[in-house]
Amino acid sequence: MSAPVIRASSLAQHFGARMIFQDVSFVVNAREIFAILGGSGCGKSTLMKQLIGLLPPSAGRIEILGQDLARARQAVRRSIGVMFQSGALFGSMSLLENVMLPLEVFTTLPPEGREAVARVKLGLVGLADAASLMPGEISGGMVRRAGIARALALDPPLLFLDEPSAGLDPITSAGIDRLILDLRADLGTTVVLVTHELASILAIADRCIMLDRAAQGMIAEGDPRHLRETSAEPTVRAFFRREAA
Amino acid sequence: MTVRGSEAAGRVDLVFRGSLDAVGAGRIWRETMRQAVAARGRELGFDLTGVEQCDTAGAALLLSAEQRHGGVARFIAASPPIAALLARVRDLAVVTEKPPPPAVATPPRRVLAEFGGRLAGRVGEGLAFLGQAFTALLGLPARRRMVRFADLAQLIDQAGWRALPLALLLGYLMGLILAFQSAIPMRRFGADLFVADLVSIALLRELGPLLAAVILAGRTGSAQAAELGTMKVNEELDALVTMGLDPMTLLVLPRLAAAMVSMPALVLALDIAGLVGMTTVLAGFGFPPALVAHRVVGAVHPSDLMGGIFRAVAFGAAVAAIGCRAGLATGAGPRAVGTAATRAVVGGIVATIALDGLFALLSYRLGL
C-alpha cells in the first residue's frame, strides 16, 4: 500500500488561552475523497488552514506527500490546489486568465500553451464556453467551478475544497459532487473537503472525520455511511439526523 | 523532457521522453508545435514509449500539436491511463477562441459624439440625483424620525474636525509658497509689501475654498463613496428600502449637510493658516506683522470672505453629492468599491473646478 498523502499527528490549535482543538490525528490516502465535518466553530476551517500551510499548528505535525509541511511549505504548496469558499477569483481577470495565472508563474509554457492548458481545465469543470467571462458576470456555482479549475491548473495530486456546495441549489450542488468524482477518476486527484452538506458527504466522501466544539477535538472517524448507521456518539448521531431531517 | 522527430516512409513520429506535465510540456511546447506544423501533409505519430507521466498539460500539448498538424495523429505506446486521459481531454472539445474581429478605425466625429453622449448621460444622472436629494429634503419634515443627529455629528466630526490639521498644514504651506513666489518678481519693482494684498485676496476668494474642496474630495468624498458602496455590495441599502427607510434621507442628506457645514470651517482655518504663512515670509523680508495685518485689512473686503464661504458651501455640496452618488451607483465585483471611490475623488475635483469657473464668470458679470 502506498504512503498516505496526508499524515496529521496530534494537531492542536489555540488562540491565546482559547483552545480550538487538540490531539487531532488522521491520515488521508491516495485517490481518497476525505471530508472534514463538524458544527460551526468546531475548527474545521482552522484545520483546513493548517493543512494548506496558512496557519502553523500550535502543536503536532503535518506530512503532505511525505514532506514535513513545517519544513517544506513552498514545495508542498506546489503540490496542492485550494478552492476557497468564495472561489477567491481575481475580479480583474477573466476566468481564462485566472486559470492561466499559476501556469504563468510556475511553468515555462508559452502563452498559447498556457491558454490551451487553461482551456482544458475550464473544459474539465464545464466552463469551456465561459472562458472570456469575468467573475462578476457568472453565477455562484460557476464561480466555484472556476475556482476548482484554477486550483487544478498545475494538476496537483491533492485538492482542498472549502465548502464547495455551500449555498448552491441541489442540482448545481450535485453537479459539483459529480465533478469531484470525475476529477478523482480522470486525474487520480486526492480530495479533502470541508462541508456541511450531508447529501454531498454521503454521495462522495470515502471517509471523514468529525470535530466537535465541546470536545475540543475529533469525535469520529470513518466511512460517513457507516457512521450514520452505527455511531453511538450523540453529536455524530445528532449531526446526521439533524442534517437529514 | 525531450521531443525528437523521426521520419520514415512519409510518416513523422515525434518521440517524447520524460514527464509530460506542465513543467515538461513548457520546455518542449514550441519545438513540438514547430515539428507538428512541419509534418503537415504527412502522417503524424506521437511515440509515448519513454513518457513516465502525463497530466492534462501534457494532453493539451499533444492535442494542440495534433490540431496544428491538421490531421488525426496516432498515439504510439500510450499506457491505459494516458490513453484514458487523452480521450477525456479530447471529449471536452475545447474550442479555441475565435480571432478578434479586425480593428476598424472609428471616425473622430463619432468618438466625439460618443464622448458627448456619455458626458450628457453622466450630467443627467447627476441632476436626477440632485433632484432626488431635493425631493428627500422637501419630505424631511414628514420623515424627521429618520434623521439621526448622532450620525450627523459623527459625519461632521469626520468631514470637518478630523480634516482640520491637514487644512491648517496645507493652508500654512500654501501661504508660504504663494508669498515666496510672488515676492520674487514684485521685489524688482519695489512692491514687496503688496504681496500681502495679492496673497490675501487670492487665498480668501479662490485658493482657500478650492484647496479645502480638494481636501474634502480626497478625504471625505472617497470615504463616503467607499462606505455607501460597501453597503450596496452587502445589500444593506436593499435592507433599508425593504424596511421602508429611504436611503436618500437616512444616508445622503446627512452627508450633504455634514459637508456643507464643515466646509466653511475648513476654509476659515485654511485662510487663517495661509495668512500666517504669508506673514512668516514677509517677516523674513523685514516687514513687521502689524504692517502686514494693516495691508491685509485694507486689501480684503468682507465680500471676499463671504464669497469664499459661499463657494465653500457649494463645493461641499457638490463633493458630497458626487461621493454619495458614486457610492450608491457601485456595481458588482471586488473592484467596484475602489472604482466608486476613484470616481468620487475625480468627479469631486472636476466639479469643484467647473463650479469655480462658473462662479468666476458670475462674479465678473455681476461686478462682485
Cα-atom radius of gyration of chain A: 18 Å
In percent terms, what proportion of residues of chain B is strand? Answer: 5-15%
Query: What topology, given as strand order, has the largest sheet of chain A?
Result: 6-7-8-3-9-10
The largest pleated sheet of chain A is described as:
6 strands, mixed
Question: What would the principal axes of the Cα set say about the shape of chain B?
Answer: elongated
Tell how many strands the DSSP assignment of chain B holds: 4
**What's the overall geometry of chain A?**
globular
Helix content class of chain B: over 70%
Structural class of chain A: alpha/beta
Q: Biggest interface: chains and residue counts?
A: A-B, 33 and 34 residues
Approximately how much helix is present in the residues of chain A? 25-40%
**End-to-end gap of chain B:** 82 Å
C-alpha termini separation of chain A = 39 Å
Figure out the total of helices of chain B: 12
Give the low-confidence spans of chain B: none
Oligomeric status: heterodimer
Unreliable stretches of chain A (pLDDT < 50, length at least 5) are: none
The SSE order of chain A reads: EEEHEEHEHHHEHEHEEHH
The total count of helices of chain A amounts to 9
Structural class of the helices, strands and pairings of chain B? alpha/beta
Detailed description of the structure:
- The complex is a heterodimer of chains A (245) and B (368).
- Chain A is of the alpha/beta class and 245 residues long.
- Chain A contains 9 helices and 10 strands.
- In chain A, the strands form 2 sheets. In chain A, strands 6-7-8-3-9-10 form a 6-stranded mixed β-sheet, with helices on both faces.
- Chain A is globular and about 55 Å long.
- The N and C termini of chain A lie far apart (39 Å).
- Chain B has 368 residues and is of the alpha/beta class.
- Chain B has 2 domains: 2-93, 2-Layer Sandwich (Transcription Regulator spoIIAA), CATH 3.30.750; 128-366, no CATH class.
- The longest helix of chain B has 39 residues, at 195-233.
- Classes of the chains: A alpha/beta (245), B alpha/beta (368).
- At the A-B interface, α4 of A face α1, α2 and α3 of B.
